[in-house]
Amino acid sequence: MTITITAFERSPDRGRGMARDMRVRWALEEAGLPYQVRLLSFAQMKQPGYLASQPFGQIPAYEEDGLALFESGAIILHIGDRHGGLWPADLHGRARATAWMFAALNTVEPPILEWEMPKYLERNESWYEARMPLLDSRVKQRLSELSHWLGDRDWLEGDFSAGDLLMVTVLRRLTGSGLLELYPNLPPYIARAEQRPAYQRAFADQLAVFNKSEQTA
Amino acid sequence: MTITITAFERSPDRGRGMARDMRVRWALEEAGLPYQVRLLSFAQMKQPGYLASQPFGQIPAYEEDGLALFESGAIILHIGDRHGGLWPADLHGRARATAWMFAALNTVEPPILEWEMPKYLERNESWYEARMPLLDSRVKQRLSELSHWLGDRDWLEGDFSAGDLLMVTVLRRLTGSGLLELYPNLPPYIARAEQRPAYQRAFADQLAVFNKSEQTA
């Protein structure tokens, strides 16, 4: 079996692990699976050949023995179902893990991206400063609800699962904003995840790609 | 087996099928499963008892013989895995359907919600009109990519799947905007889905709840 994922040839986040290949790398490391990486330029991501496997021209795409997949959430779901290691073996435990996977991607990430994207796209607009309190408040609402659920748990549901994996990658986008620190149990939750050996291997590997791209620039 | 979902006591969309219980009702109808509905006021959705089953105070939550689930994507995934009827039986077909489920919720819906929410939250702000072209362009990018993939297919992958179900509920948010009509294959795609008997039963049932709430108001 050969697994191949795609990633940015030159990561816009300069190797801080925010690109979505990090999620899949981490899941593959948790599952103990070797994989290859195909690096793409921004131009290559929009070419017809790539759009045939990733219709929205994003990274990562995933290939495994004739199966072509896209969307980091679906890729991680497949890894867990096919290879294990990402949630409890029982049906209910898996279902609860998937609830947190979707919560990370469809309830928590959207307001965080709405908060983050204006920094790149609307920084010079007259309304930029005036809108930020609104965007802050939407992020805080989700963080507050998440923090309340987490309480003094180590992970969202018993043992670590792909729900934690996705939630932590989403929360890490707020690093340096000061928002996470408003909820005292969230920074230690993220730190616990970052201390996992699988996380550290995945992080080192995506950083190595970026460092190499800098050397050859 | 008893299935119970939660829904708005009084839907903010006045029964147009935009609330997320519509997605789960439709999936349950496709799978041929009877279910009960527990209606909640906005105040009830934020009470501790409900937050224990839906940590973000949203609808729908789902209960089935001791399994409590939340997030419409995860609920639909569970329905398909446990009861069938929402994607092909083979592993690859299911994986491809889940790719479109996540694409609907994490790639297509976020720019559509970013486009929709200012209509409610920022309509009276000085920047409202000036920002709309930016929001339009982000929606158009995703619609263009989706339209390109769809081409002359009836559904995103061979037969109808939960990927189509979620994608159509996401696209329907743009009804009346004029944006869908820029891509000639998208309105017929939505119409095909709306013509499915399962869709029509689900739509009628959620509309009946709203009509009843109006009568008793």
Account of the protein in words:
The structure is a homodimer of 217-residue chains. The radius of gyration of chain A is 18 Å and the shape is globular. Chain A has a 4-stranded mixed beta sheet. Chain A is of the alpha+beta class and 217 residues long. Chain A folds into 2 domains: 3-85, Glutaredoxin (3-Layer(aba) Sandwich), CATH 3.40.30.10; 91-196, Glutathione S-transferase Yfyf (Class Pi), Chain A, domain 2 (Up-down Bundle), CATH 1.20.1050. In chain A, 56% of the residues lie in helices and 9% in strands. Chain A starts with a strand and ends with a helix. In chain A, helix 1 packs parallel to helix 4 (72-83). Chain A is built from 10 helices and 4 strands, in the order E-H-E-H-H-E-E-H-H-H-H-H-H-H. The first copy, chain A, has helices at residues 21-30, 42-45, 48-51, 72-83, 91-116, 118-121, 128-150, 162-171, 186-194, 197-215; strands at residues 3-8, 36-40, 61-64, 67-70. At the A-B interface, strand 4, helix 4, helix 5 and helix 7 of A face strand 4, helix 4, helix 5 and helix 6 of B.
